[in-house]
Amino acid sequence: MKDLFAEENRRRLTLKSGKERVVANRHPWIFGGAIARESGPDDAAIADLIDSSGTRVASGLHSLHSQIRLRALTFGAEELTADTIRSRIERSIRRRDPILRNGTSAARLINADGDDLSALVVDRYGDVIVIEIANSGLEKILRVFPSREDGEESPAKHPFGGFLASLGMTRLAYFKNDLPVRKLERLPLEPEVIGQGEPAATIEENGLRFFVDAREGQKTGFFLDQRENRAMTRSLGQGRRVLNLFSYTGAFGVYAAAGGAAAVENVDVSAAAIEGARQNHELNGTTAAFTVADAFAFLRERVAAQRHVDFLICDPPAFAKTRGDVDRAARGYKDINLYALRLLESGGLLMTFSCSGHLSLDLFQKVIFAAALDAGRRVSFVRRLTAGQDHPVSLYCPEGEYLKGFLLEVHD
């Protein structure tokens, strides 16, 4: 079996003169525009980045087709080996141990650059592991990754065996493989299932239960990044009339109802999502109303009818999927938050989010300011909201901080 880490099997990328700052700042993404010339195997999984003096300044995952030609995993003289990757996987999983206890069986195990494992996301849902790989070099490595125990592919002698062993695979692993970047990387787009049964599970989160099917819906099936914000909803929702917009699986609504909300309504444009929300409320013995509707039209109608609420959760899908979408997205965020603020009673709470990585925190705050101004309400920032502790962000790669939100209090 070819050693993908051996020097003769590595790509050699020479950094353009004047681009040294790219590496000095330790940002893991090295774009093609910073590369002067290349040599070595086209299909290399690993590449070394060399400066103009011939000194290695970084090593990482190679891509022949992506604009990100190198996803740096080590810098300077540090060696990049299979043990480097294995130790980072094991360290990442250990960091999640405090989360996966006391009534919680789901967490993000590996968060790409936030865990110094660029292009790799691994989520655990009970006994199901869901994996997303966004780089061709990484896929090649993990398909022949040896287990620490015996140096062979395991369990069951299949590709990804050693990698799954390092994750502590339980019943089933599901490689989702639907990321758009995989098409660019010329990787298979069909999902791969390893293990027994279906890639679905009923998980626990803070003692509440949710059904997750990794084959359906967005991301890997359930938004683990919102765990801590959902827990806040449980405590804040007591006695309040709660409206959960873009409800998807209804998780915010379940938390609010479990916390003693006076009433909960889940709203989503997808009838299938609303059925999932209904199922999750039934799993927890909580009651709620369910509405299939476009959130924008729904809010306008409720404002016109003056059917106010005390607590509104607004967690829409990403409005800006590319940099070119930012202006349009900002208008959408302003519109939805304007009507949300108009619908709240005095003293009411708004928990509002953007998961658009291309929309900065500063711009999102300005959008909320403009919405509040147009709504004619006095608004206070109670707390800034972000993803949970199992979604760390690299200090050197701030692009990983995609989820941003605010808890607001509205006054007359």
Question: How would you describe this structure to a colleague?
Answer:
The chain has helices at residues 20-24, 82-95, 136-143, 161-167, 180-184, 227-236, 251-258, 271-284, 295-305, 326-343, 361-375, and strands at 11-15, 29-31, 35-39, 46-50, 56-62, 68-75, 106-111, 120-125, 128-133, 172-175, 192-195, 200-205, 208-213, 241-245, 263-268, 289-292, 309-314, 344-354, 378-385, 404-411. The chain is an alpha/beta fold and 412 residues long. Helix 6 (227-236) runs parallel beside helix 7 (251-258), helix 7 runs parallel beside helix 8 (271-284) and helix 10 packs across helix 11. The protein folds into three domains: 7-75, Archaeosine Trna-guanine Transglycosylase, Chain: A, domain 4, CATH 2.30.130; 82-199, RNA methyltransferase domain (HRMD) like (Transcription Regulator spoIIAA, 2-Layer Sandwich), CATH 3.30.750.80; 223-411, Rossmann fold (3-Layer(aba) Sandwich), CATH 3.40.50. The strands form four sheets. It has a seven-stranded mixed sheet with strand order 16-15-14-17-18-20-19, sandwiched between helices. A six-stranded mixed sheet has the order 2-6-5-4-1-3. The protein has a five-stranded mixed sheet with strand order 7-8-9-10-11. It is built from eleven helices and 20 strands. The termini are far apart. Helix 10 (326-343) links the parallel strand 17 and strand 18 (344-354). The mean pLDDT is 93. It is globular, with a radius of gyration of 23 Å.
